[in-house]
Write a structure and sequence with these properties.
With 165 residues, the protein is of the alpha+beta class. It has two domains: 14-45; 74-162, Histone H3 K4-specific methyltransferase SET7/9 N-terminal domain (Single Sheet), CATH 2.20.110. The protein has helices at 14-20, 24-45, 59-71, and strands at 74-81, 84-93, 98-104, 107-115, 121-127, 130-138, 143-150, 153-162. Strands 1-2-3-4-5-6-7-8 form an eight-stranded antiparallel β-sheet, with no helix packed on it. The longest helix is centred in the N-terminal third of the chain and has 22 residues, at 24-45. The protein starts with 13 loop residues before the first helix and ends with a strand. It holds the Pfam family MORN.
């Protein structure tokens, strides 16, 4: 049993308690403690319902949905084909992020500019919803990367610089 853990529970049967007990009184006490243990074991084996934490209510998930929908609202102006973004369009979010560019089958595809509310931006080629090809990524801290991207990540040749305004 190298490296294996096992848990075993030692219990005594009624007959073994009667046989090895010095007196009847201790046997009765031992039997009652065994029955208490068995009752606890049965209680542990019952399936428990979902515990309710103090302060938790059924209203919390509803509020979360309302807050998420408030902060993630967006608008789209542009072409639609079969209910999907297709062609040129502008997507804007409540916090100030904006994408202006080309779409294909509901994904950013072609050339586009994505400006985040944090001050970061990416202008360049897109493929299947990710920056892919040649592009310019600028960050709010003043850094700028001009070069190649693959699936949204800097990849290949490029130039990294810092600009202080």
């Amino acid at each position: 049993m190298d490296g294996q853990k096992s848990q075993a529970k030692l219990t005594r049967t009624s007959s073994s308690l009667l046989r090895f007990s010095p007196s009847v009184r201790s046997s009765i006490q031992s039997l009652s403690s065994v029955s208490d243990i068995e009752a606890d074991d049965l209680e542990e084996q019952k399936p428990h319902g979902r515990p309710v934490r103090p302060g938790q209510s059924r209203l919390a998930p509803v509020l979360a949905v309302i807050l998420l929908s408030t902060y993630t609202t967006f608008s789209y102006e542009g072409d639609l084909v079969d209910g999907r973004y297709d062609g040129h369009g502008i997507e804007s979010w409540a916090r100030g992020s904006k994408y202006r560019g080309q779409y294909m089958q509901g994904l950013r595809h072609g050339y586009g500019v994505y400006k985040l509310y944090t001050g970061d931006s990416y202008a360049g080629e897109w493929c299947n919803g990710q920056g892919h090809g040649v592009g310019v990524q600028t960050c709010g801290d003043g850094s700028c990367f001009i070069g190649e991207f693959k699936r949204g990540v800097k990849h290949g040749l490029g130039c990294l610089g810092y600009y202080f305004f």
